[in-house]
Amino acid sequence: MSLSMKDKIIQRFLLARGEPISGQQLADELGISRTAIWKHLQTLQDEGYEFITIKKKGYRLVSVPDRVDAARISSYLNTKRFGHTIHYFEEVDSTQSIAQQLARDGAKDGTIVIAEEQTGGKGRMQRPWYSAKGKGIWMTVIIRPNILPHQAPQLTLVAAVSLVSAMKTLYKNFIPEIKWPNDILINGKKCAGILTEMLAEMDRVDGLLIGIGINANHELDDFPEDIQSIATSIAIEEKQKVDRAQLVAEILKYLEHYTDEYVANGFAAIKRLWVEHSCTIGKRIKATTIRETVEGEAIGITDEGVLEILLDDGQIKKVYSADIEIQN
Amino acid sequence: MSLSMKDKIIQRFLLARGEPISGQQLADELGISRTAIWKHLQTLQDEGYEFITIKKKGYRLVSVPDRVDAARISSYLNTKRFGHTIHYFEEVDSTQSIAQQLARDGAKDGTIVIAEEQTGGKGRMQRPWYSAKGKGIWMTVIIRPNILPHQAPQLTLVAAVSLVSAMKTLYKNFIPEIKWPNDILINGKKCAGILTEMLAEMDRVDGLLIGIGINANHELDDFPEDIQSIATSIAIEEKQKVDRAQLVAEILKYLEHYTDEYVANGFAAIKRLWVEHSCTIGKRIKATTIRETVEGEAIGITDEGVLEILLDDGQIKKVYSADIEIQN
């Protein structure tokens, strides 16, 4: 992991969890002068970190800005590779398009791009994705598993299972569910979405861009009016503000774990977890594709991530891409 | 099609096929002054075009530089969409990486990137591809068919069929053959290769980059020594220099035709043509994959472009990616 000196200082304070650290100790640990330490602390104060000086003990960090920067994420991180390179931005067009460029330029497996705000965020089918400033997690994880292009949809399911697992670990007041193909719902309302894009040759995946958008600290009126009845946030459902950096680190932990599990042992275990957390399978649904609308019971997904619907006439219909409405 | 004034002038001369055109006529047709025409002709002479002045008749184009620029390709072009936007370069790292950027920025279906020389050309599996200056066709065609990601390998086969069809139309002294997955051979030696890359969401292809490398006017000692025994060029086999711009236009014609045919009527007809021109199917082969080497008879390809090999023990092995050696 490569952090700047400033990031190292703040990480040291974050790991101290509120205990004071003396300037001399910091200077010794990091191999720079006390004056340099003092200058970095000034810069950090300008960025919104607050310190108080405790006589004979040193500096104590009392308040951190609500950001998802490298220092804050790293202070929670417990992974072998994922999140070891973090590209953080105040504002971007979309994390996905920056990640595409980085992937082409050879970014390592597990590199992430994260921003406080996206001005041109996109969901599936190029639909706009609303990404309010400082409220959510707008992130792309670049992964480079050794798989074939036709296996790539399985990684969207890996990502969904990882998101749900991270949420269940951290929050206790709700149960997140997966809606095929790539939404996370809480109490029937959309809380997160996953957009997986792929750079591939015909017989080789060069890179997958797992785009993750999560409504974290939105209050209801942070959403545009027309989606207030169908959108929600973790904070609304948990009835408490979310530490976004902690959630990012938890997602990265599960995403790395389940990706490695998938590459080592195949799709079966992931598929079982996905079905377990799905709110689609076993339900009567209406699926609207580009060509038609079909109704029936969602009975399963194939190894290609394709939804299987049992129609009323007994036929099984395979659906690659659709908008789903759950009817019971 | 958008050509510069200079390109329009040269295209006019190319279409005149050696007949003289008066300065006044050109000025009238293009709506600019005779002085402006004269200045453009000066620039064109600097670029290697040669004109002679014929008394009372005007200018006659007597020699064109050996280039594959927009004007030269356009003068042969007979397509509805493909090649209507041409990005021409003297030298690039690789046409594929420029095309990736253009595709992300919304380049139209059929846009091409072509260069006289590639300094970092790549074949399959990131292998270097030798792209000598001014000798070959180093081109990427951006296509945006409405297909699902798992259908994408079929477009590599569409491209192979298009290349072979264009060569058979223009040249009479050899028969090109397709070697699975993406090589064009003449008399058993490699003459061209296709590298298809894809930008895709899980349920939608955003764009395909059909990279085409053709050894056109190479003489044997234009190839590095270590590949002289396995490489060839059209000029070597046809025993005559190739008009590269004409070949580009012919490839674009077939590529547009077969892509449209494929999208309208499916893969069956393309597959039949591919098998017809294949030098792999029906042969005993040795296939080396990342994991193993298998031997047997290549009996067919699936709709996913996967090669099926009948092993000696009667099993049928499916091969997604391999190097193939033909043994009889």
TrEMBL record, chains A, B:
Residues 71-263 form the BPL/LPL catalytic domain. Acts both as a biotin--[acetyl-CoA-carboxylase] ligase and a repressor. This is Bifunctional ligase/repressor BirA. It catalyses: biotin + L-lysyl-[protein] + ATP = N(6)-biotinyl-L-lysyl-[protein] + AMP + diphosphate + H(+). NCBIfam families: birA_ligase (TIGR00121). Its EC number is 6.3.4.15. The gene is birA. Belongs to the biotin--protein ligase family. Residues 23-42 bind DNA. One of its GO terms (molecular function) is ATP binding. Pfam families: BPL_C, BPL_LplA_LipB, HTH_11. Keywords: ATP-binding, Biotin, DNA-binding, Ligase, Nucleotide-binding, Repressor, Transcription, Transcription regulation. GO terms for biological process: protein lipoylation; regulation of DNA-templated transcription. GO terms for cellular component: cytoplasm. InterPro entries: aa-tRNA-synth_II/BPL/LPL, ArsR-like_HTH, Bifunct_BirA, Biotin_CoA_COase_ligase, BPL_C, BPL_LPL_catalytic, HTH_11, Transcriptional_repressor_C. Biotin binds at residues 118, 190. Signal peptide: none annotated. HAMAP family: Bifunct_BirA. It is an enzyme of class 6 (ligase).
